[in-house]
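Sat 14:20. Reprocessing the chain from the morning session after the first attempt stalled halfway. Input below, unchanged.
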Amino acid sequence: MTIPEIQEPVGRKAAPVCTLHVAKDDKVLLARLAGPALTPATLSAFDDAIRTFTAKWGVHRDLLDFSAVEDASDLPSKFIANRSQFEPVPHVRLVLVASKPAIFGLCRMYASYQRATSGEDPAVVSTMDQAYAALSLQPSTQWAEAEY
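Finished this time. Tokens:
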């Protein structure tokens, strides 16, 4: 499976890095976040990048990869619960990847709120292989850097 590399931020206080890649043939947006900590500000910036891409290129299936985020202790669960009140990022299908237990739990909480408030049913998985399966992607999927 060829998954685009993400450049890791340098230093404990470094801001998380967001990268967007697209598999045009499959209409899938891969948004990856890497860094020492997930905060409300970085998560909002992540959403903004996805919204900007969607406004320019249309709705895609979204694969959001949090597996390179080290910590989410600065992200209160109340923030996750309140996200259901924000204007949702439009997508056809949403899959969240989180390999760290605490971040996986926050993603599950977000998915639960989405199911309860919007009827959307995001998948939460712990590996990219599982994410590919959830989106019926092939290991040979070709990714290009997204223009937004």
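The beta strands are 17-23, 28-35, 61-69, 94-97, 123-125, 144-145.
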